[in-house]
Amino acid sequence: MSANVRDIDAIRAFRAALIIFAEDAETAIQLMLMEAQKTLGWIDHDAPFYWKTQTRKAYDQVASSRVSYENCRMRTVAGHRSTCIEEKQAFEKAKRRLQHCLDQTELVRKWANTLRHETDEFRGRLAGLQKLLSADIPKAIALLEKTTSLLESYAEMTRPTREGE
Q: Model-level pTM greater than 0.85?
């Protein structure tokens, strides 16, 4: 087996670039995992808490607007019942808000399950890259270092001269 190596510095430069790549890739992986964890924390804790609070407020608003609407319907002014349009609209708006909060609570629950599953898939896929970065790249770097040393040793050797030259 023969090799036609013309520039040992190119191998050194490739080794240095490989080291930088490994460090950058490891940093990127850690950042992605932190973002995934942050997102899981938000969808598992913050979002459900927010919508639970909003749902409680919406129930209170429905109750309050219902009481106002019923009180208005019971009132008579000069023998005539009020149309209670504003109160009825407020009551309908409060019911729509409550339904929206309940829908969002259910939606967050569904997305939390989906996000947990996708995050697990993502971590599984990253395992191959992490293995490459923790085992294969260091082996390649060591091999390049050894190759560079051997080539430098070979280059330093003086060529044998032929008799008569």
A: no
DSSP codes joined into one string, 18-61: HHHHHHHHHHHHHHHHHHHHHHHHIIIIIHHHHHHHHHHHHHHH
CB atoms within 10 A of CB 69: 19
The C-alpha atoms of residue 56 and residue 53 are separated, in whole angstroms, by 5
Two structure tokens written together for 107: 């939606």
**Residue 88 zone, left/alpha/beta (φ > 0; ψ -120 to 50; rest):** alpha
CA neighbor of 85 nearest in space, from 74, 98, 72, 66: 72
pLDDT in tens, 57-67: 999 999 999 99
Tell me, what's the pLDDT at 4?
67
| Helix%, strand%, coil% for the chain, nearest 5 | 85, 0, 15
